[in-house]
Design a protein that fits this description.
Helix content is 21%, strand content 34%. By secondary structure, it is an alpha+beta fold. The strands form seven sheets. It has a six-stranded antiparallel β-sheet. Strand 23 and strand 24 form a beta hairpin. Helix 3 crosses helix 4 and helix 6 crosses helix 7.
């Protein structure tokens, strides 16, 4: 089967940096830094601030905004009654800030979806958004975006990437759904008098401030046992894990970075699988499953957006919401949501649910069969709908931890039935693609169909990424029937 290269390649650029907080966990050290900043006269301080600005202003869109955000994190350590000029606040914020090169280590594992805006295109063209996993210092991963156009002749034209990156604004008072919150507490065995006292007075939808107020009221009337302490901790964790962020409309797509926010993600946001989901009423929402990693445990999460400006991040719940590699189907099947998964880190499984936030009862639909996938298999993103069935791009791990990309075909009406599969890899690591941070790997988090072809972006060896295309008919011709 012929694979067509687009000539597009993505390589990490260590010049793309974001301003992060750089604050010691030791309050004494923070107070020492502030004391030194207070020792400068106003003229000395303005001189030092000018030096820092000259050194960094051309690398960032709005340094003042970042510095003030970080100053607010240490404001409580400023001696009581101390007056601070705007410049001194900015300088203290700069002392509590540092640059982070988002993709200095790797830029890989892409997924691709149609762009929400398909205006001003030639006939047969498709504008797309590509997500990429960017990894920097400490192997912390975040999500970056790129845009481009697939032309009618299947050539790919990428929009120019700006040198700037921007972190989103975090909604300080997000809204939660009571039913989801209660379901998660029940799943964790935290239905007790204290949680009932907190949740009972809340409306079907409530804000973070309303939750905190009810927690405070409950603490005044309920005894502080170990169970209460754990329930309070879990409620805080739940609220922190379900958050909303937004970007300024003035930012370009390539400037928007989704960086870890909650403690669940403190060591990275990994392998986002984006899909354009069309509901039964015709409404369109972009979802992405990803793996939150805190350095010890992983947690599947769900991103929701309609415009790639406003994002809601939610926990995925239920006994089957575990391990990596969950991928949502692009529409309901028989009125239910469908998800591919890999709970056992070995086989490909299918789940159906009435609620996209809760998953249980997975069933194995495919096991490792070929030598190049004898170690384990999994999905490489959401299934692609064709008249012949659901095409699922897969990954297989074989000898020497070599990752190859394959494909299977699922029945349209009953995706638990595998009706075709490749007996040989679609793609395998070859040449320079074998070398990288994790060698001998090709991997993707999502492809799309356009004009009779599959457009397949993939990462190689946790180093870079590229885009290839191939005919859908050729792929189907190569698949061996299973029924």
């Amino acid at each position: 089967m012929k694979i067509y290269s687009t000539g597009v390649e993505f390589r990490p650029d260590s010049r793309r940096v974001v301003v992060r907080s750089f604050i010691s966990n030791d309050p004494v050290k923070v107070e020492n830094i502030i004391r030194r900043a207070l020792s400068l006269s106003e003229s000395e301080l303005e001189e030092q601030l000018a030096i820092v600005r000259a050194d960094f202003c051309e690398r960032h869109i709005d340094l003042n905004k970042s510095w003030l955000r970080h100053f607010e994190k240490v404001r409580a350590h400023v001696p009581s009654g101390t007056w601070l000029s705007d410049e001194r606040q900015l300088f203290i914020g700069a002392l509590c800030s540092g640059e982070y090169a988002l993709e200095s280590a790797a830029l890989f594992n892409p997924s691709i979806v149609p762009h929400p805006d398909q205006t001003q295109l030639e006939t047969g063209d498709l504008r797309f958004i590509l997500s990429l996993r960017a990894t920097g210092e400490g192997h912390i991963s975040s999500i970056e975006f790129r845009t481009g156009v697939i032309h009618a002749d299947h050539s790919v034209e990428m929009e120019k990437t700006t040198p700037f990156v921007t972190l989103p604004e975090l909604d300080p008072n997000p809204t939660f759904h009571k039913a989801t919150f209660l379901h998660k507490l029940a799943e964790l065995g935290l239905e007790n008098d204290w949680s009932a006292a907190v949740m009972g007075p809340l409306q079907d939808s409530f804000t973070l401030k309303e939750l905190e107020r009810q927690q405070s009221l409950a603490s005044e009337t309920q005894s502080q046992s170990r169970d209460v302490a754990r329930t309070m901790e879990i409620m805080h964790w739940l609220a922190e894990s379900n958050y909303s962020i937004h970007f300024s409309p003035q930012t370009t797509v390539s400037e928007r970075i989704i960086f870890p926010v909650s403690s669940n993600e403190s060591n990275g946001i990994e392998d986002a699988r984006f899909v354009r989901f069309v509901d039964d009423d015709g409404s369109v929402t972009y979802f992405a499953t990803y793996t939150a990693y805190n350095g010890r445990a992983i947690l599947p999460q769900l991103i929701e957006t309609t415009d790639f400006l406003h994002f809601r991040i939610r926990t995925l719940n239920g006994l089957a919401a575990q391990n990596k590699g969950m991928a949502l189907f692009p529409r309901r099947i028989g009125g239910r949501y469908a998800m591919l998964s890999r709970q056992d880190d070995e086989n490909l499984l299918l789940m159906l649910s009435d609620n996209r936030h809760f998953w249980s009862d997975p069933q194995i639909i495919e096991r490792p069969r070929q030598p190049w996938e004898f170690v384990k298999i999994g999905n490489c993103g959401s299934p692609i709908e064709t008249e012949e069935g659901w095409i699922v791009i897969t990954h297989g791990v074989g000898a020497m931890r070599k990752y190859c990309i394959g494909a299977i075909l699922l029945d349209l009406a009953d995706p638990s039935k595998v009706i075709g599969r490749l007996d040989q890899p679609l793609l395998k690591p070859e040449g320079h693609e074998r070398e990288g941070y994790v060698p001998n790997v090709v991997y993707t988090c999502g492809a799309l169909a356009h004009g009779g072809r599959i457009i397949l972006p993939y990462g190689f060896s946790d180093s870079g990424a590229t885009i290839v295309t191939f005919q859908i008919s050729d792929l189907l011709d190569q698949m061996l029937p299973t029924v």
